[in-house]
Amino acid sequence: MHNRLKHFFYSFILLVISPLFLCAKENPETLFAKGNGQYAKAQYKEAAQSYEEVLKDGYKSADVYFNLGNAYYKMGEMAPAILYYEKAYKLTPGDQEISLNLQLANLKIADKIDAVPEFFLAKWWKSFVLFFSVQALSVFAVVLLLLGFTLLIVYLFAELMTIKKPAFYAGICLIVLGLLSVFIGNLQNSYLHNSTQAIVFNGTVNVKSGPDEKGKTLFVIHEGTKVTIKQNDDNWIKVELPNGNIGWIESVAVKEI
């Protein structure tokens, strides 16, 4: 009986104080606002910590990544700044402010690597596909398809030809546009997520001819450079630079976007 009362007492205490611990932990919105306030006061290190706490809670958004990138940029730490700008860009590729800040950060790193030139039509098409955010494309697709099918229902039940004909053609056009939005969304996802990219975090990295420290050094890359991971081999990764150069580096030298 005594043990049962003791157990009940402890359970009651835990029940009472648990909400206090939950309240004490700041929610993502509060942490994000806190980070913004710290950033406004030029407390960039503290702001970065607040934004990282938001990410640790599992809350990910372009705004959090972008602001975290800005905090690191202000601290002069270009590798993490570029990493988080790239993460923000993946979520909202059409955001001009993110693109501009990413370009500015890349101007401050040692390696200036020109990408392999693209055919102008392919480059234009890719820019068009990446102009919209995933959220915008999703909204476009849903709204256009709903309106399109609604107009087709109007066409089926309307009696006047002055209503049936416009409803039919407008409905077909809207459905085609909705399906086009879905297609562009899938294509955008392919552009952004079909390859694994990473940012170099080590100051200087020797790129080897093979996954071996004793291999021949082909070239050198520096902190902040973006690479595409082509292959994994234990603690080594095969990477490709934007200019097409390929070699092997240790996986600990980079952080994946």
TrEMBL record:
SMART domains: SH3b, TPR. Residues 1-24 form the signal peptide. It comes from the Bacteria. Residues 195-257 form the SH3b domain. The chain crosses the membrane at residues 128-155, 167-187. PROSITE patterns: SH3B (PS51781), TPR (PS50005), TPR_REGION (PS50293). Keywords: Membrane, Signal, TPR repeat, Transmembrane, Transmembrane helix. TPR repeats lie at residues 62-95. InterPro entries: SH3-like_bac-type (IPR003646), TPR-like_helical_dom_sf (IPR011990), TPR_rpt (IPR019734). This is SH3b domain-containing protein. The lineage of its organism: Bacteria, Pseudomonadati, Bacteroidota, Sphingobacteriia, Sphingobacteriales.
